[in-house]
Amino acid sequence: MAGLDDAIAGAVAWISTNILVDTVRIELPADGEPVLNDTTGLLEYPESELLYEGLGAVLPVSGPPMTVVADANLPWANATRSAYKLLTPLEAPIPTKDCVVSVVAVHNPANTALLGRSWLCSDPGRAGSVEAVRQTPLDQLRGET
After folding, report:
1. Number of Cβ atoms within 10 Å of the Cβ of 106
2. What is the pLDDT of residue 90?
3. What is the pLDDT of residues 36-70, one digit of tens each?
4. What pLDDT, on a 0 to 100 scale, did the predictor assign at position 55?
5. How far apart are CA 32 and CA 41, in angstroms?
6. Three-class SS string for the chain?
7. Of 15, 46, 87, 100, which has the fewest Cβ atoms less than 10 A away?
8. Per-residue pLDDT tens over the stretch 8-43
9. What is the phi/psi pair of residue 5, to 5°?
10. How confident is the model at residue 5, as a pLDDT?
């Protein structure tokens, strides 16, 4: 709908300039088994496929961390979910479920808390009839800072 797209063009430009200010990387983990490197004696895993590296933002979803209902029959405790969302320009590819997202550069060198973390796309990137920015739900991977 060209008229509606024209009407929100200013919002799209503002979001691109003021919110999509960090550099994000979206990778699709490789399928396949690791291969033994005869020289090093170490297993080498296939390379991930780079889907996108460019402007974006990772934001926490407001509210406390979500937990799943405990099941007394399970031998482990269920983990909490750290809900985030990835924002990318509409021109960026739509991430698929299980893509891995990281922030590789931040706009403010004093604010490096996003660096060194990674997130899993818990669902494909969202799509809608009217969009100003692409949104993708994320869950922070454990073992990260």
Report:
1. 16
2. 92
3. 899 999 998 888 999 999 999 999 987 655 555 55
4. 97
5. 19
6. CHHHHHHCHHHHHHHHHHCCCEEEEEEECCCCCCEECCCCCCEECCCCEEEEEEEEEEEECCCCCEECCCCCCCCCCCCEECEEEEEECCCCCCCCCCCEEEEEECCCCCCCCCECCEEEECCCCCCCCCCCCEEEEEEECCCCC
7. 46
8. 889 999 999 999 999 999 999 988 888 889 999 999
9. -60, -40
10. 81
The alpha carbon dihedral of 56, 59, 11, 14 has a sign of: negative
- Tell me the chain's radius of gyration from C-alpha atoms: 18
Q: What is the pLDDT at residue 28? A: 93
Q: Looking at the DSSP assignment, which residues form a beta bridge with residue 44?
A: 35
User: Each residue of 17-44: b (16+ CB within 10 Å) or e?
Assistant: eeebebebbbbbeeeeeeeeeeeeeeee
Domains and CATH numbers, the chain: 2-32+43-140 (2.40.10.270)
